[in-house]
Design brief:
Blueprint lengths: L2 H16 L4 H19 L4 E4 L11 E7 L2 E10 L2 H6 L2 H5 L5 E4 L6 H11 L6 E4 H7 L17 H13 L2 E3 L1 H10 L6 H18 L2 H19 L33 H13 L7 H8 L4 H6 L10 H5 L9 E6 L16 E5 L2 E6 L2 E6 L15 E2 H8 L3 E8 L4 E5 L7 H10 L5 E8 L8 E5 L4 E5 L4 H12 L7 H7 L4
């Protein structure tokens, strides 16, 4: 639905509600219409209606949401018009509460709008707006720019929508909404798009409270850096990196300023990954990855379906961690076994978990171990002689040897490698040993994580901290030893240069 149609539609609904002869019906109709508009802007907020209407100091609605694990609320006071809010002294009386003063009707008298603007000019937290303006900013949606849509709106507009009710301040009318829509649009001309991003950044400071403005400015900077490939514009002050924080070998500029909000993660990052003109620079994607984690990506999987995640994940395989991996043949996109190697390699979301397609395998990885259950039987263990060439490259800490006449479990003290002990036993005791399970360490360090591999269920489980790279290599090489992955291909999908 277009912007004008939406505005006319909400006007008609409110006019009908305001014309109800019974007070209860009037209040119910008005609040229902307003709640619908607010939910359109930000479906994730929780809206509670009070028992009051148009009261001086008791709100009509209360909005609540979570941000960084904290519960935040904001009150909404309904007024008939901007004029009534200004004349009634509501701005001055309610300024310290930082609420939304929401007019039901738009004032078309320019003098009234200008007077309302002066009224809120020096107010830091209160938002004075009207329903048609919110309807205007809530209409339409962004698209990934393409030749068929060279002037499609950018994700900045979607980020503004939720931030208006959470962190908007000052005067926000239809003229403001139109200005934001204009400056949020992408362009087939990169210079024009960069100019729009700069104008958008300058607008946010006067239209949003400090925290919301910072989020929007950061989103605009990330978009600009992605389009230009200039990571140096994402400058961080020394205070952004906590004292004693490890830099993981990355320049300070690559340490993200805080964490991406749910809005940034669900809107901005998929958009950047879908645009074919965004830089593939690992430095850029490492910066993005430093503000999120596999856990966050996993929890918002539905926003990343049908998106090639390879640039993002490959740049963060050494800084993101997983707790479980499941390996299976990649047969879903192949007509026959001979087609397996033709399936495109890379990272994506599959079955609600992070997935890597490489060679003939699909590897699922998760932080939440409940997502990956492993096979329910039907698999078969490998013999020690089959696994021996692969395991010699790892620090083996535990193994189960299932022979025809005996079953042995060999374990080591923390940090010891029992590979030679296993060879001594298998050489001295004649039997055909299969290995249903083995445990390896990812490095000689005492703090190194352990990976327990179930070769029947094709499942790898982590104890301690194991990076995506470490878990992927262990799972593919040990669980997938019967159908080895080309090491050069594996290196490419893991971000090796």
């Amino acid at each position: 639905m277009g912007s004008i149609d939406r505005i006319n539609g909400i006007r008609a609904v409110l006019d009908h509600a305001l014309g109800e002869p019974r007070g209860e019906d009037l209040i119910s109709g008005v609040k229902s219409a307003v709640i619908a508009e607010l939910e359109t802007l930000d479906p994730s907020i929780d809206i509670k209606s009070t028992d009051y209407f148009n009261h001086s100091f008791i709100p009509d609605l209360t909005l609540s949401w979570k941000e960084a694990g904290k519960s935040i609320t904001r009150d909404v006071f309904l007024r008939y018009s901007l004029r009534s809010a200004a004349i009634g002294g509501d701005v001055e009386a309610l300024a310290d509460m930082g609420p939304i003063l929401l007019a039901l009707q738009e004032d078309e008298d320019r003098r009234v709008v200008e007077a309302a603007g002066r009224e809120v000019e020096d107010v830091q937290s209160l938002l004075l707006t009207d329903v048609p303006a919110l309807s205007d900013i809530g209409s339409g949606s962004y698209e990934v720019r393409s030749r068929s849509a060279p002037e499609a709106a950018s994700p900045l507009l979607d980020l503004v929508r939720s931030n208006v009710v959470r962190g908007g301040r000052g005067l926000f009318v239809s003229r403001t909404a139109r200005e934001i829509r204009e400056k949020s649009r992408s362009s087939d001309d990169l210079n024009v798009e960069l100019e729009n991003i700069q104008s958008f950044t300058e607008m946010t400071g006067r239209l949003f409270r400090e925290d919301a403005a910072a989020r929007l400015m950061r989103a605009a900077q990330i978009l600009r850096a992605g389009l230009t490939g200039d990571i140096n514009m994402l400058e961080l002050t020394s205070s952004d990196q906590a004292d004693g924080e490890e830099d993981n070998g990355l320049p300070a500029v690559l340490h993200g300023h805080g964490r991406l909000s749910d809005g940034e993660l669900s809107v901005l990052i998929p958009y950047l990954l879908r645009r074919d003109d965004v830089t593939a620079s690992p430095r850029f994607w490492a910066y993005v990855g430093s503000m999120m984690s596999l856990d966050r990506l996993e929890s918002m999987w539905e926003h990343f379906t049908n998106v090639d995640l390879t640039p993002l994940v490959a740049a963060n395989v050494d800084s993101w961690f997983a707790s479980r991996a499941l390996l299976s043949f990649n047969v879903e996109e192949a007509d026959s076994a001979s087609d397996l190697l033709d399936v495109r390699s890379g990272w994506n979301i599959h079955a609600r978990a992070l997935s890597l397609v490489v060679g003939g395998w699909r590897l699922h990885m998760a932080v939440d171990g409940r997502k990956l259950k492993g096979r329910d039987g039907g698999g078969r263990a490998s013999t020690w002689m089959q696994l021996r060439p692969v395991l010699r490259d790892y620090l083996v800490s535990s193994v189960v040897l299932q022979g025809i006449s005996r079953r042995l479990q060999i374990s080591a003290r923390r940090g010891n490698d029992i590979f030679r002990d296993i060879e001594t036993i298998t050489d001295s005791i004649d039997d055909r040993y299969v290995v249903p399970g083995v445990e390896v360490r990812t490095s000689p360090s005492e703090d190194a994580g352990l990976v327990s591999l179930d070769l029947v269920r094709m499942l790898a489980e982590v104890s301690g901290s194991v990076t995506i790279r470490e878990l992927a290599e262990v799972a593919l090489r040990i669980l997938g030893h019967r159908n080895p992955v080309d090491l050069d291909v594996l290196a490419s999908v893991l971000g090796d240069q």
